[in-house]
Design brief:
With 302 residues, the protein is α/β, with parallel strands linked by helices. 36% of the residues lie in helices and 28% in strands.
């Protein structure tokens, strides 16, 4: 099973929202669909789901035009998609029935998910009375209640506190273990980096970067150096860094981040630190983060 998007285009009047977009998801796992606001991510998702038609191109699942008959999919939109004045269990049961489940199976599945996400106490409560984080949990249940094989998560961690973020992450990990195909759109680059094997970055509806994330990062080489040391040693550390052409990128309470030209320059810098009595408690040479790559590719448009 796999998803293929080939030369897809969509315009609204004179504005081209998606422009000749192509990508392929060949095996289960998490695929990142990234971009700034208005880059065309949600439009792309809606075309894949058949909510709107593309002007050109084709979208296939397992080599056939995608539709409700040949793939079970779940969609968690960024905007709220639940009924505020309807009881939680009642509407979850309804959503399950819309996806072909019997009323009994849908209700039982809803109760299991409510228990798993720690919101069973709200089953008989109208959705509008729930916090934003708990409403987000209900949104997730509506996407997963029918056990879909293709899942779209649009900003899934919005409005979640750290505890509930970890809960959502555990569910995503289980979906990956269950061989589900997940398309994730998020502005939280660290989370995307944690889960996505492959990705595409959109800017003004066009792909500006796509492929395997590990290969993309490896192509940049080692570009960054993080040094942790005592606060009183910061000025001396930065002074030595300048001698080795290391550019200061960021400074926090206990770390400095530098841009480096080579591993050799970073190692020479470390030797000079130690020779002068500065002993870092952290010294990490790394490839650029997805956040940094994203800013490089689309930052000028932000």
């Amino acid at each position: 099973m796999g998803l293929t998007v080939s030369n897809v285009q969509k315009s609204f009047g004179d504005k081209k929202a998606v422009d000749a977009l192509s990508f392929e998801i060949g095996e289960p796992g998490v695929f990142g669909l990234l971009g700034t606001n208005g880059a065309g991510k949600t439009t792309t998702i809606r075309m894949i789901l058949g909510i709107m038609e593309c002007d050109e191109g084709e979208i296939l699942w397992d080599g056939k035009p995608i539709n409700r008959d040949n793939v079970k999919y779940g969609y968690m939109p960024e905007e709220r998609g639940i009924y505020p004045k309807v009881q939680v269990l009642e509407q979850l049961t309804y959503f399950g029935q819309l996806r072909g489940m019997s009323r009994g199976d849908s209700s039982n599945a809803a109760l299991r998910w409510l228990e798993r996400l720690g919101v069973s106490e709200y089953a008989k409560m109208n959705a509008e009375k729930l916090s934003k984080g708990n409403q987000q949990k209900i949104q997730l249940i509506t996407a997963l209640i029918h056990d879909p094989e293709l899942i779209f998560l649009d900003e899934p961690f919005s409005a979640l506190d750290p505890i509930n973020t970890d809960m959502f992450k555990s569910i995503i990990s289980q979906l990956i273990a269950d061989k589900r195909t997940i398309v994730m759109s998020s502005h939280q680059m660290s989370t995307v980096e944690q889960y996505c094997r492959d990705l595409v970055i959109l800017d003004k509806g066009r792909s500006v970067l796509q492929g395997n994330l590990s290969s993309i990062k490896a192509g940049y080489g080692h570009t960054n150096l993080t040094v942790g040391c005592d606060a009183q040693m910061f000025d001396k550390t930065i002074s030595f860094a300048e001698k080795h052409d290391l550019k200061l990128l960021d400074r926090t309470a206990d770390e400095c981040e530098f841009k480096i030209s080579s591993d050799e320059a970073a190692q020479a810098f470390l030797r000079e630190l130690i020779d002068n009595g500065v002993f870092p408690n952290k010294y990490e040479i790394r490839e650029p983060s997805l956040h940094e790559i994203f800013i490089e590719k689309v930052g000028a448009a932000v």
